[in-house]
Design a protein that fits this description.
single chain, alpha/beta, Rossmann fold, 2 domains, seven-stranded parallel beta sheet, six-stranded parallel beta sheet, 14 helices
Length: 371
């Protein structure tokens, strides 16, 4: 197959979950003994490890009018498609071009929280995202998501046939495993002697990181050994001032907000943590949870994410309730040895090669639907 890949996320200056997702998929495809070719288009010039592989071609599709993703996807990509023909187009971005598409489409959509909760998204962004994902859903031969929960939400809000939505479960990157962390991470962030509770992921309203801070403050009075690491950039809407919330806590000196953790520190961060907190009101997949579990770190999470964590977690029914979250934190910390053993023994043998192969099968099926 001649496959076109929308490499929008490769343009990211800092590592994100979707950047790791796309890099893992491409790396796994490179190991497969087939005759597929992959053309990866990006808005900026990038240096990629696969550029020396003859099956991979990285095309810098420089924006004509604007570097904004919406304009680039709907002007530059269609113009590019007028010059070159592909067997299938793979878009791991939730969106597809509005015109000029000359091959079957397969789109990755992990969740549609903005359709279920439009109050969490600025109005103009909501309109663009709603229109864009609905258009992608109707135009795509297949939609890939990461859980049964997300599939149900996609079917409900995008009004597509359940048969169109394919669940491809995730996996941690192979670098994440249980290991004795070096001292550099604790030294850099002055974490000596602390029991670390990490809360990882972009700060969204649906993830209730504000509740986590206040719940931690409640139990920190009794547990003087605890340190909360809040890791992620603030993307809340309506805006939540996390620094202000932290400043008002009694134990503000034991709450550290890191807006961006370098990729090379992620392994030591997980292995230095006793617990990962990942609460959500609307999502069914979590790569931070998969990475933590691969390192033997249990989770405090919500029931909709049980497809990821299984028995290696304590579940909070109401992630917006401070008292419930504080009780969950104490329970998870008390059970952390038991939960860590479950996480270590239940670590999935699933690898990115499995995900890449299942994704390729989706692409092949999409081409068959057009013959």
């Amino acid at each position: 197959m001649k496959i076109l890949v929308d490499g929008t996320y490769l343009d990211a200056k800092k590592g994100t979950g979707m950047l790791r997702y796309l890099n893992n998929i491409l790396a796994a495809w490179a190991t497969m003994p087939d005759d597929n070719t992959y053309t990866v288009i990006t808005r900026t010039k990038i240096a990629h490890p696969l550029q020396k592989d003859p099956r991979f071609k990285f095309v810098h599709l420089a924006p004509i009018l604007s570097p904004k993703v919406f304009v680039w996807q709907n002007l530059d990509i269609p113009l590019f498609l007028r010059k070159e023909k592909f067997d299938v187009i793979f878009s791991p971005t939730y969106f597809v071009p509005l015109w000029g598409v000359n091959a079957p489409l397969v789109t990755v959509i992990y969740d549609v929280y903005y359709l279920a909760h439009p109050e969490w998204v600025p109005f103009v962004k909501y309109i663009l995202m709603k229109f864009g994902t609905q258009r992608a859903a109707t135009q795509s031969k297949a939609i890939i998501c990461g859980s049964r929960y997300d599939k149900d939400q996609i079917v409900k809000y995008l009004k597509v046939s359940p048969e169109t939505v394919k669940i491809i479960y995730g996996a941690p990157s192979k670098k994440f495993h249980k290991v004795e962390p070096g001292p550099a991470f604790r030294e850099k962030y002055n974490l000596h002697g602390k029991t670390i509770v990490s809360c990882v992921g972009i700060l969204f309203n649906r993830r209730h990181q504000d509740t986590v801070i206040q719940a931690f403050d409640l139990i920190a009075e009794r547990r003087k050994d605890l340190q909360l690491l809040l890791i992620g950039a603030n993307a809340t809407y309506p805006y939540i001032n996390f620094e202000q919330i932290i400043s008002k806590t009694k134990n503000r000196d034991r709450i550290l907000h890191i807006t961006y953790l370098p990729e090379e520190e992620m392994l030591d961060m997980y292995n230095s943590s006793e617990l990962l907190v990942y609460l959500s009101s609307h999502e069914g997949e979590s790569f931070p949870m998969r990475e933590a579990l691969a390192c033997g770190v249990p989770c405090l999470t919500t029931p909709m994410l049980n497809e990821v964590s299984g028995r290696a977690a304590v579940y909070v029914e109401d992630p917006a309730n401070i008292e419930s979250v504080s009780k969950g934190l104490l329970e998870a910390l008390d059970k952390r040895s038991e939960l860590s053993a479950i996480a270590s023994s239940a670590t999935s043998s699933r690898i990115w090669g499995d995900i890449a192969l299942e994704t390729l099968n989706c692409l092949k099926e999409a081409t068959k639907k057009c013959t």
